[in-house]
Specification:
Blueprint (H helix, E strand, L loop, with lengths): L2 H7 L9 E2 L12 H13 L5 H19 L7 E4 L2 H9 L10 E5 L5 H8 L6 E5 L8 H6 L5 E7 L11 H10 L3 E5 L11 H4 L3 E5 L11 E5 L43 H17 L1 H22 L2 E2 L12 E4 L3 H10 L2 E2 L1 E2 L3 E3 L7 H19 L1
Parallel strand pairs: 1-11, 3-4, 3-5, 5-6, 6-7
Antiparallel strand pairs: 2-8, 7-8, 9-10, 10-13, 12-13
This protein binds pyridoxal-5'-phosphate.
InterPro entries: Aminotrans_V_dom (IPR000192), PyrdxlP-dep_Trfase (IPR015424), PyrdxlP-dep_Trfase_major (IPR015421), PyrdxlP-dep_Trfase_small (IPR015422)
Keywords: Pyridoxal phosphate
Protein name: Cysteine desulfurase
Length: 380
């Protein structure tokens, strides 16, 4: 492990207690969050309305820090408590009455996405769900479903169950060629994989802090390609989305920045908490984090192969994010026993092993030793 990563490891107290390979579900929380919570508590105990001046600056500052982290300009990111709220609000910007009213999505989405778009069918949206094969999406098949009737392509970058990653470039090319927009759920890739929204050319990118970004719960974000901002007129809106919310006057127009995709009183504490992890990730840099992640996940796969487990996650580096999904007889019971004995992973139809920047290769080996030993018990 390089020196920067070793230093970072000390920032995560949870690692002193358990072997934590669960970042696809919830990332370890950095020590620095404690001070933020204490400061928040002090502010509440000595309350004055002036606290909002600092809070407002913290909120805007966090949004711009997220923007920088994904290669976007200031003012192009807004936050809210969860991804669903932001995607739903985005959905209220469109008209579903014309010829172009299809939302193309896939069966690899996190369950919130197809459920949400189904809801928009009452306004005329037509949802097209492109089926995957063996847990992977064939980009050609996806592109074939995108045509002049497509309003929006709403797809996940990395699958939440396997980490299988979509080649966004071809999807964005196809969508833009036929005049459709692309909204990417990058919850399982931002923080694990370097993301540059400008290079990708996506129109919208959504994610959240509490997995790979080492941030807080209730802390999701939406990036909007700046050229699109003036065109977005959300129906599900509110005073904080207005041009000058702090005048408390009637709202006449939306803010020119991504704040136009906010609603009411912002979730300040989650932004303050999430800033701690984001600053750690940014200081290490995504190329270092990705290189370490690939080393760790390659080790998981190698050990899984030796033990005869099925590796569901694709092998190619450019086809996988930060998690490795495994299948073997008794995997559900093994996952339960591992968690009970302090080897933290998650199970969603597959056992998922998710190392991050704060894990060491030795830890990955220790985890795999325990996993193999538990799996043997199932066979016996
Ligand atoms: C790919 C993906 N999208 C979305 C979510 C969560 O969405 P929300 O913030 O709306 O709960 C998760 C995980 O919880 C996820 O893995």
């Amino acid at each position: 492990m390089d020196a920067t990563l070793s230093a970072v490891r000390a920032e995560f107290p949870l690692l002193e207690k358990v072997t934590y390979l669960n970042s696809n579900s919830t990332g370890a929380f950095p020590r620095g969050m404690e001070a933020v919570l204490q400061r928040y508590g002090q502010t509440l105990q000595h309350w004055r309305d002036e606290a909002w001046e600092g809070w407002w600056a913290d909120w805007l500052g966090y949004m711009d820090a997220v923007a920088r982290f994904i290669g976007a300009p200031d003012g192009s990111v807004v936050t809210d408590t969860n991804l669903t709220t932001l995607l739903g609000r985005l959905g209220t910007c469109f008209d579903y009455q014309g010829e172009r009213r299809r939302v193309v999505t896939t069966d690899l989405e996190f369950p919130t996405v197809p459920f949400l778009w189904k809801g928009f069918e009452r306004y005329g949206a037509e949802t097209v769900v492109v089926p995957s094969e063996n847990g992977r999406m064939d980009e050609e098949r996806l592109c074939a479903a995108i045509d002049e009737r497509t309003l929006l392509v709403s797809v996940t970058h990395a699958s939440s169950s396997t980490g299988a990653m979509l080649d966004l470039a071809s999807v964005v090319r196809r969508a833009h060629a036929v005049g459709a927009l692309v909204a990417v759920d990058a919850y399982q890739s931002v923080g694990a994989v370097p993301i540059d929204v400008s290079a990708l050319g996506v129109d919208f990118l959504l994610g959240g802090a509490h997995k790979w970004m080492c941030g807080s719960i209730e802390s999701a974000f939406l990036y909007v390609r700046p050229a699109l901002l003036p065109t977005l007129r959300p129906a599900a809106t509110g005073w904080i989305a207005g041009e000058n919310p702090l005048t408390f006057g009637p709202v006449r127009d939306w803010a020119p920045t991504a704040r136009r995709m906010a609603s009411g009183t912002p979730a300040v504490l989650p932004s303050q908490l999430s800033r701690v992890g984001l600053d750690i990730l940014a200081s290490v840099g995504m190329p270092t984090i990705r290189a370490h992640s690939l080393r760790c996940t390659a080790r998981v796969m190698e050990r899984a192969d030796e033990a005869g487990f099925t590796v569901v996650t694709p092998r190619q580096e450019e086809r996988r994010a930060g998690v490795v999904a495994l299948r073997f007889p008794g995997d559900a019971a093994v996952a339960q026993r591992l968690v009970a004995s302090g080897f933290i992973c998650s199970y969603r139809g597959m056992l998922r092993v998710a190392p991050h920047l704060y894990n060491t290769l030795e830890e990955v080996d220790r985890f795999m030793d325990a996993l193999v030993a538990e799996a043997r018990k199932e066979k016996a």
